[in-house]
Design brief:
single chain; 10 helices; alpha+beta; eight-stranded mixed sheet
Length: 491
């Protein structure tokens, strides 16, 4: 396992699956991560939340195992918990569904079947021996393994094979583990490197099942969406005449993607309820998250604001350092607000140096199925007065995995007040395993605990001050959560 004090050297590999289709950062079911294509069996730790990007990006020679730890994923940001599926509902069947006629229709060369069987054997063994929940969350894994072997031996295409294994991991129901096809695994690597590109409009969205809309979490810089005036907090009602959510309540953001130069028309609803029709010309989009910063002067206080939208991209710590320097450049601050409300997590190797701007020392432990423990340490780096500045951290239901750990560590050490709403409660740590065909399994193998032993897996991290306001109900200018944070610094 690689040092947790350094980010892994990542080979220049192309691509990743993301949250909402036109949003690179998570897959349809959750956020994928990245990292692989490491030529040697190096490993790193990653934590991510699954679930909300899917629109636009919507992310062993026989088995070379590269372990990358991740904490639960899917990049969404609603400020009040909402029952919004981003993937098909997970269930725990005791056996896998029978192969379809379509899967049997085409004769599959024996060499492909044999490769699939080798991947399957390693896949089922990894889950059997390393999955954090020894009861497999009620799934009969031995039966699943037998049914899967029958399915493969019956002859199936690679596309159906990858979809089948992905469904079997989804059946485990932890909402963190995920299996990626070779193409999706490449996409993940590219996203982590911060150089993922796709043809679309440049939106990160999240489905709102109550209103059958997609809420905009972020708009990429210089993207067709930004040029057309779409803003964070807006809601997408229709896309080229199609509803923003399909009949099953899943995101249709994939409709934003398409050939560069083509036009897509969408009906957009602002937080105040006013609707407008927006036309966007699809283009190549750089799916690079924005670390925004500014100075807010209000109530006699001078406060710095920095949004940290992800811990996936491996230069986030450098960009947060630059933001810290910028907000302190022209005078002292009364405090600093760190906004993690749309942060779905990322890599431990990104978390550590970023968190190190504000605290130091042990922040907790990773516990595996045998009760084995590994301590996570943070090395301090003072940027201006970053180690001493009073902090407020904004959190919400879209704050997941290592973003939750980030907030919890600062709260636990008495460094920050948390304002907003309860977080996602996805803090299982995933390990990445690479297969001979280039596919990848992210498997939940550990869970995070604060030094006190506290865990909020499945419950969510409780803020010190709860503000009941949903992301789509206000604009950046009327943000009640940010207002509450500023008030804590007011004279």
């Amino acid at each position: 396992m690689s040092s947790m004090n350094k980010k892994p050297a990542i080979s220049p590999v192309p691509d990743v699956r993301l949250p909402d289709v036109d949003s690179p950062r998570r897959r349809g079911v959750g956020v994928l991560l990245l990292l692989a294509a490491l030529a040697s069996a190096t490993s790193c730790v990653i934590a991510f939340g699954l679930g909300w990007l899917d629109g636009g990006i919507n992310f062993l020679p026989q088995q070379m195992s590269t372990e990358i730890r991740i904490t639960g994923e899917p990049r969404a940001i609603i400020v009040t918990p909402i029952d919004t599926p981003t993937s098909a509902p997970t269930s725990a069947p005791t056996s896998a569904p029978a192969p379809t006629k379509a899967a049997r229709a085409t004769k599959v060369p024996p060499v492909i079947t044999q490769r699939q069987l080798r991947v399957l054997q390693t896949f089922t063994k990894l889950v059997r021996e390393r999955y954090i929940y020894t009861d497999f969350n009620g799934v009969n894994w031995e039966q699943v393994s037998r049914d899967a072997e029958k399915f493969v031996r019956s002859g199936t295409s690679d596309d159906d094979f990858y979809a089948y294994l992905s469904d079997r991991i989804d059946d485990l129901g932890d909402n963190h583990s995920v299996y990626l096809s070779p193409t999706d695994a490449k996409d993940e690597d590219s996203e982590y490197a911060g150089d993922f590109q796709y043809a679309g409009v440049g939106l990160v969205t999240f489905p709102l099942t109550q209103t059958a809309e997609l809420v905009v979490l972020q708009v990429f810089a210089d993207s067709p969406a930004e040029i057309a005036g779409v803003r964070a907090h807006d809601r997408i009602v229709t896309i080229d005449g199609q509803p923003a959510l399909d009949a099953n309540g899943f995101s249709n953001a994939v409709l934003f993607r398409g050939e560069a130069g083509t036009t897509v028309r969408t009906v957009v609803r602002a937080p105040d309820g006013k609707e407008r029709t927006v036309e966007m010309v699809r283009a190549q989009v750089d799916a690079r998250e924005r670390v925004e910063h500014r100075i807010i002067e209000k109530g006699g206080a001078r406060v710095g604001y920095i949004s940290i939208p992800t811990l996936f991209e491996d230069d986030i710590d450098a960009r947060v350092r630059e933001a810290l320097q910028a907000v302190q450049k022209n005078g002292a601050l009364n405090g600093l607000v760190l906004d993690l409300r749309i942060n779905g997590g990322g890599a431990l190797e990104v978390l550590q140096p970023t968190l190190g701007f504000f605290t130091r020392g042990s922040i907790g432990n990773l516990i595996d199925r045998t009760a084995g423990s590994e301590t996570i340490n943070v090395r301090a780096e003072n940027v201006g007065s970053s180690q001493k500045l009073p902090l407020v951290v904004l959190i919400g239901p879209a704050t997941e995995s290592y973003a939750e750990v980030f907030a919890a560590a600062l709260q636990d050490k008495g460094r920050a007040v948390l304002i907003g709403q309860r977080t996602a409660g996805n803090i299982e740590t995933l390990h990445s395993h690479e297969f001979e065909d280039g596919s990848r399994l992210w498997l939940a193998e550990e869970s995070f605990r604060l030094p006190s032993g506290k865990s909020w897996e499945g419950i969510g991290l409780e803020p010190d001050m709860t503000i009941d306001a949903q992301w789509h109900e206000y604009s950046a200018e009327t943000d009640p959560v940010l207002d509450a944070a500023i008030q804590t610094f007011a004279h």
